[in-house]
Amino acid sequence: MSIEAKLLHLQAIQNLLAQYRYLYCVDLEATCDEVEEWESPRPLEVVPDQMETIEIGLVVIDLETLEVVDEFQRFVRPQINPILSDFCKTLTSIQQADVDNANTYAEVGQELGAFISRYPAAAWASWGDYDARQLERDAGLAACPSLLSGLPHFNVRKWHKGLYDDKPKSLKLTVESLGLVWRALIIEVSTMRGMWPRSSRKCWVSNEPGLGPEDAIAHHRRSRQNEPFTDDLRC
To answer: What was the pLDDT predicted at 195?
Structure first.
């Protein structure tokens, strides 16, 4: 992809964000199960349609300063499959006691609603569409409104695909390829703060002109007065 095409894509992202003051960067963990290669065949303890969120991590980025201004983390008690599979505990590092002592999805939703009310004019972003789909699945299973319902969602993996020539990897591999340190849940504080500006930061590291961090910040602020650039950059 040419530098000009990348600049246009970056402009499109900035124009999408121009109407918002805050961006919530979100990462979820959910109940799950998988039959390992070394296991004998067995029924899954959790089928995909019954996966439930068991942890939500969120940081608030002020798009004027590109600084993290707050964070929110809660474990969530699953209702359909309250006992975590061994696979899930190994994959997520979440233990049974973490969810046993947690509130339900609906209760956490009330806590989150009170939290984000302090940061209006906001949208939220995640690496891929999974998190948005999972929250909708949770809402259907719990018969309550979805967490972050009504807020626009942006797929950062799609943004990444439009800015880099390589195919998007997992979030962990992408973080490491940008020279950032993966620190499990600390990603909400350290890595996901760069979820939007890290696009420009990577181009800067690659010595591509016009896309340095300072230029990106200034460009973002100017773009708040620009007309939206039409492109399919949402989830």
So the answer is: 40
Q: Is residue 219 within 8 Å of residue 9, measured between CB atoms?
A: no
Q: Which residues pair with 66 in a beta bridge?
A: none
* Level-2 CATH architecture, domain 3-223: 2-Layer Sandwich (3.30)
Q: What predicted TM-score, i.e. pTM, was given to this entire model?
A: 0.77
Q: Where are the domains of the chain?
A: 3-223
Which residues, 6+ apart, have CB-to-CB distance to 26 below 8 Å?
56, 57, 58, 124, 125, 126, 131, 148
Confidence of residue 179 (pLDDT cuts 50, 70, 90): confident
Helices within 72-212 (DSSP H only): 86-92, 96-100, 105-116, 130-142, 156-163, 171-177, 187-190, 197-205
Q: What distances in angstroms separate CA 196 from CA 24, 158, 161, 188, 200, one per listed residue? A: 11, 11, 13, 13, 8
The residues near 6 (Cβ < 8 Å, ≥ 6 apart) are 162, 163, 203, 208, 211
Partnered with residue 47 across adjacent β-strands are none
User: Distance (Å, rounded) from C-alpha 228 to C-alpha 232?
Assistant: 12
